[in-house]
Amino acid sequence: MDKFDWYEFQKKQASESKVPWLREFYETPLPEVGTSIKDTPLLALDFETTGLDAKKDEIISIGLVPFDLNRVYLRQSKSWLIKPKKKLNTDSVVIHGITHSDLEDAPDLNKILPEFLEAIAGKICVVHYRQIERDFLNATFKRRFGEGIKFPVIDTLQIEWDYQKRLTSGLWKRLQGKKPASVRLGASRSRYNLPTYTPHDALIDAIATAELLQAQVSHHYDEETLLSDIWV
After folding, report:
1. Any idea where the domains of the chain sit in the sequence?
2. Which residue spans traverse the membrane (predicted)?
3. pTM of the shown model
């Protein structure tokens, strides 16, 4: 199956977008064809949301941090709390720990979007389970501006899932009852002897995702691996 052509997609969006700052985002070039993972400007990204349904739930926290294969640049990290249009439900508060009072003085998402897009423009976002970050951002843009947003990411969950499937594939392993291990962020990190962090804080999860990709590349790839071989 042919891989999605992100370069052509970005070029098309830059010429067709009606939202000025979204058009500016698409006009920022992606890393050149043939860029290796070690030379890619990486940025780990995580959202906390009011639920798991991108069509009705909302983003209430964003964390991001730039990194490369050797360092995580904590001083350049950013995080935002965002006031949702609807009240939080109790179930989501239990998971992420963000309360109504935490969000009382938080800005609307529209206020931080220009700064957010500037931070990720030209970078390759690294996420753990892209259906959250990609789907929520796309759905949010469609609701607010009538246009979605889409960009390439590296998905550490997908990398881990593919590796676990390889470990448990084959008739003999299936007969032995071997199944892929959990690919949740904490479980994935533990297999690389990375420290345990408290989950469901957007910035902490972004840092955890950055460290996980560093470990995955060290164990399963070469630093000269092409970006285009692992982005989705």
Report:
1. 6-230
2. none
3. 0.94
